[in-house]
Amino acid sequence: MFVPLARYTASARQERAFACSKAQHSRRVSMSTGKTVLYSAPNSRGAMVEWYIRSIKAPVEVVNLDMGKGEHKSPEFLRVNPFGKVPALEETGPEPWSLNESGAILYYLAEKYDRNFPKDAHQRAQILQWILFANATLAQTAFMESLREKQLPGLLAALDQHFSKHTFAVGETFTVADVALGSYLGYIPMFFPGKVDMTPYSHLNAYMERVKERQAAASA
């Protein structure tokens, strides 16, 4: 069949462009190969990040450091986190980078790997609010004795009221906010047995049970 030269030339150009595009895509894929590593340790805040990684099945390698042997102070790890603290996240590849602080790591993993992470800006802001609340307001109030005695009951009462109306931190769906909030709430009876009376907060206790069920399912 006769093909006009102009059509043939255009077709050839399209084929070459397509082949070039495929080659460029292949190079980009190969260049982007690397891995994401979470540095954690037993009985650290890294545990909540490990739980979230399992929950969303994120392709993240977990490396538990031996704090007793000072592995968190090794030159290799200090290149990841100069503060020598866990958790810390490292991404290798052509543009390696690292991230510290459990709240920041949780939010980043949610944006990158959680298929159910909301697209709505208001919902994302609420999730970030709860992560910050858990890591700052709640943690500080629970772990500082003077604040624990004076301010923690008020915080727990407000949370109890919130969970009288909501199943999870942000509405009716489990999110990364519940990983942070549920973890810090779980620390209270763990670290301060007999010092904080949780019995008046029935709605909050029910929420904590729901979070425990999620955690158990992720670990199964």
TrEMBL record:
It comes from Cyanidioschyzon merolae (strain NIES-3377 / 10D) (Unicellular red alga). SUPFAM superfamilies: GST C-terminal domain-like, Thioredoxin-like. InterPro entries: Glutathione-S-Trfase_C-like (IPR010987), Glutathione-S-Trfase_C_sf (IPR036282), Glutathione_S-Trfase (IPR040079), Glutathione_S-Trfase_N (IPR004045), Thioredoxin-like_sf (IPR036249). It comes from the Eukaryota. Belongs to the GST superfamily. Pfam families: GST_C_2, GST_N. This is Similar to glutathione S-transferase. Residues 120-220 form the GST C-terminal domain. Residues 33-117 form the GST N-terminal domain.
